[in-house]
Write a structure and sequence with these properties.
This protein has 536 residues and is mainly β. It has a domain at 425-519: Sandwich (Immunoglobulin-like). It is 7% helix and 42% strand. It has helices spanning 13-22, 45-56, 68-71, 75-79, 344-347, 449-452; strands at residues 81-83, 96-102, 112-117, 120-123, 131-133, 148-155, 164-170, 174-177, 187-189, 191-193, 205-212, 221-228, 232-241, 246-257, 264-271, 273-275, 290-291, 295-301, 309-315, 323-338, 359-364, 369-377, 388-393, 403-413, 425-434, 439-447, 461-467, 469-478, 484-492, 498-506, 509-510, 514-519. The strands form 4 sheets. It has a 24-stranded mixed beta sheet that branches. It has a 4-stranded antiparallel beta sheet with strand order 25-26-29-28. Strands 1-5 form a two-stranded antiparallel sheet. The longest helix is centred in the first third of the chain and has 12 residues, at 45-56.
């Protein structure tokens, strides 16, 4: 049955467009260190859970202020502040070490950082000696007790000659990871509150981190984090396993709510999609595509107690307004924002190298049932602003729980999900609109062993569903490489975008993932600033 997706414009578009870009400017006061600071008593995740629970009984504290010289600093001057590598904690003493981020520009939150070594907790104080101040910023205007903005973890992978930056925590509850063979792209967050509603979103933030010093031979690094916001206090434990082909974070968290928000979003992912399959870019930008990821992939158990799983692929689309789509899920077994197309010629960008951006996949290790995956797509002004978000919205008692305990993993890797190796995937989409006729021709390419192994003369069923549209014709062709091209002609019945779904079957045997797409009647119009087109 076709999963009906909610797609509707949101009223508060101006704040919505900025939240994903400027979210790291939110937070609250993380007080200066004192001998009585309870953070110094945290030596384990259990200790942190007790601290977070106690914090939830206290009134929420306002954000820390930022000196004017740093609050008003230009982006270029902020980027000119660089950390001195030899000042990093454990530099030269361990294959894993970390640096800190300087506060300034939109990085306003004051964050405390500690290390835990042999059950001893030690504060990492802010020091101007850790940084090189370039640009126009006068280091004398920087307070000696400024505090940190976040941290970055560096690790020397097996067989590598030098360390690479593989994980960062910076801004609100954002974190980014990558494997050795990818670059930073899609980000993750600890939690989102009241996202995609007609009100201001609340951004919880990590106000303190504890990095546990790894022992010789350890393959993971443990990082504890204390979350805080108006509605919630939370304890997080991250176990980071860096890798050349895949880096993974195992996440445990306990959330205690001061008051119940209207909506919570778990394991949020944030990305960027400007144009690509189904949408052309600006006339003066020669790049065929511009995106950190090209679709949302969802894996769910079809019926409780049965081993069968269903894969749903939602190719990204941009409307001229912020839109929200929902995919109902009985039992979630995974979801992610994927950079499926990794051919360099698909992007033709020597600078951004979008072909090297990672896919990011969330796997629950505690039951996530009776909820939905929500996809937020914003128009986006340019590629410097993240305009895509996906997250799990729980239902039932989990959505109203005073205390919530979760466990899941977040993996960063190149390309497709390895467990999807047999089922055929939608790897290309082309649209041809007919002005004045309200019809659209779609060409969808399905690739993978399930269709490649089918004989050329074997019939394949094309199962389609359409909401606010009618499928006028459908057929498929086998290519020389064994792929299947599916051709649809669709008549759009309303002014609102049509919701389409396509899946290939051989009798009752599923051959492909379930391709879904939000297709507007007309090509959305966008104004791209000239400064962001590469040919200006």
């Amino acid at each position: 049955m076709f999963d009906r997706l909610l797609n509707a414009p949101l009223k508060d578009t101006s704040s919505m467009l900025l939240t994903l870009f400027l979210s790291c400017s939110t937070g609250l006061t993380a007080g200066r260190l004192s001998a009585e600071d309870p953070c110094l008593a945290v030596g384990s995740y259990k200790d942190l859970c007790r601290l977070a629970e106690h914090l939830s009984t206290q009134p929420h504290q306002p954000r820390a202020s930022l000196p004017a010289a740093l609050a008003n600093i230009a982006y270029e001057d902020y980027c000119s502040i660089s950390f001195r590598p030899q000042r990093a904690t454990w530099w030269g003493k361990s294959p894993t070490y970390f640096e800190t981020f300087h506060r300034g520009f939109v990085q306003r939150d004051r964050v405390q950082i500690f290390t835990i070594s042999e059950s001893e907790t030690t504060a990492i104080p802010f020091s101007k000696d850790d940084f090189v101040y370039g640009g126009s910023l006068d280091a004398a205007t920087v307070p000696d007790d400024l505090g940190h903005a976040g941290l970055k973890l560096l690790h020397t992978l097996e067989g590598a000659s030098e360390a690479q930056e593989l994980l960062t925590f910076l801004g609100a509850s954002y974190f980014r990871g990558r494997s050795g063979d990818t670059r930073y792209g899609t980000s993750a967050r600890g939690l989102a509150i009241n996202v995609a509603l007609n009100q201001d979103e609340e951004f919880p933030y990590f106000r303190a981190f504890w990095v546990v010093r790894p022992q010789p031979g350890d393959r993971t690094v443990e990082i504890l984090a204390l979350m805080d916001s108006r509605h919630v206090s939370g304890a997080y434990r991250f176990q980071f396993a860096p890798g050349s082909q895949e880096s993974r974070l195992d996440v445990e968290c306990q959330l205690t709510f001061r008051s119940q928000p209207e909506k919570i979003a778990l394991a949020p992912l944030t990305s960027m999609w400007m144009w690509g399959d189904g949408l052309q870019g600006p006339p003066r930008d020669r790049r065929p595509a511009c995106h950190d990821s090209d679709g949302l992939l969802v894996r769910q158990q079809v019926k409780a107690g049965q081993p069968a799983h269903e894969w749903t692929w939602r190719a990204f689309a941009r409307q001229s307004y912020p839109s929200v789509s929902r995919i109902a899920v009985d039992k979630l077994t995974g979801f992610g924002l994927m950079q499926r197309n990794r051919a360099f010629y698909h992007f033709d960008d020597h600078n951004a190298r979008y072909d090297l951006r990672p896919s990011v996949w969330v796997t629950p290790t505690t039951p996530w049932t009776d909820g939905h995956i929500e996809l937020l797509e914003l128009p986006g002004a340019h590629e410097g602003i993240d305009n895509i978000a996906a997250y799990w919205v729980p239902g039932g008692s989990q959505a109203q729980s005073k205390r919530l305990t979760l466990a899941y993993s977040v993996a960063f890797f190149a390309g497709d999900h390895k467990q999807q190796s047999y089922v055929s995937r939608a790897t290309d989409l082309r649209l041809d609109r007919h002005p004045g006729q309200r019809t659209v021709d779609l060409e969808i390419r399905f690739s993978g062993p399930a269709v490649a192994e089918m004989a050329a003369e074997s019939p394949i069923q094309i199962d389609t569903d359409a909401l606010r549209a009618k499928v006028l014709s459908k057929r498929s062709e086998r290519t020389e490489t064994g792929d299947r091209l599916v051709f649809l002609t669709v008549q759009l019945l309303e002014d609102a975008p049509a919701e389409l779904a396509v899946q290939l079957l051989d009798g009752k045997r599923v051959l492909s993932e379930r391709f879904t797409y939000l297709c507007p009647p007309q090509t959305p119009e966008f104004v791209y600033p000239a400064v962001y087109t590469r040919q200006e």
